[in-house]
Design goal:
This protein has 239 residues and is of the alpha+beta class. The chain contains 10 helices and 10 strands. The chain starts with 10 loop residues before the first helix and ends in a 7-residue tail after the last helix.
Amino acid sequence: MDKLPDPRKNHLLAALPEAEWQRWLPQLEAIEMPLGQVLYESGSTLNYVYFPTTSIVSLLYLLENGASAEIAVVGNEGLVGVSLFMGGETTPSRAVVQSAGQGFRLRARVMKEEFNRAGPVLHLLLRYTQALITQMSQTAVCNRHHTLDQQLCRWLLLSLDRLQGNDLVMTQELIANMLGVRREGVTEAAGSLQTAGLIRYVRGHITVLDREGLEKRTCECYAVVKKECDRLLPDKLAS
């Protein structure tokens, strides 16, 4: 790793009070998170929780026929592996890096110990879990009731919120797998957004040219998720 990343680029880690921060820092392991890396499979026991800093992780639900659909995205606002401290140990979803970058991981044992202290960490993690549940619920509603065009706008905006800059490295095939639709549908929707001057799409690179235009074009689902995340995870130390 060329440059040691800053753990406090992850908002949950940045919200740790000083005592918790000093206890966690020696336990945090900096890691590279390459595109397509599987952090955990459906049904597997979680050995770590992950805190993305410059990467984005997609939580996917896989069907028996191999098809998949995204149920949530996690970036620098949160962590991957909530089932570990919620008592489930395993989860039916799969976690895959959808945007390459860096992050940190913490051993399962350490996370459980911190959660069981029943202090600021417990309340912070429960608030994050509520925000994540909101995103999952809204994604289900969006996939059922809104157009692919609106879903793509929502997905782009949620991804942008978790990245620095306006560029995403993402193939149409990967987007189709995330949204649980055919690649042809994504090609049409992305072409429509490009024609409208909202994005530029070239060989797996998406550049958002007009964020405000995307926000006007998407459904209410994006605003619901963002508002709840901002409400539950304000920019201050946990208490």
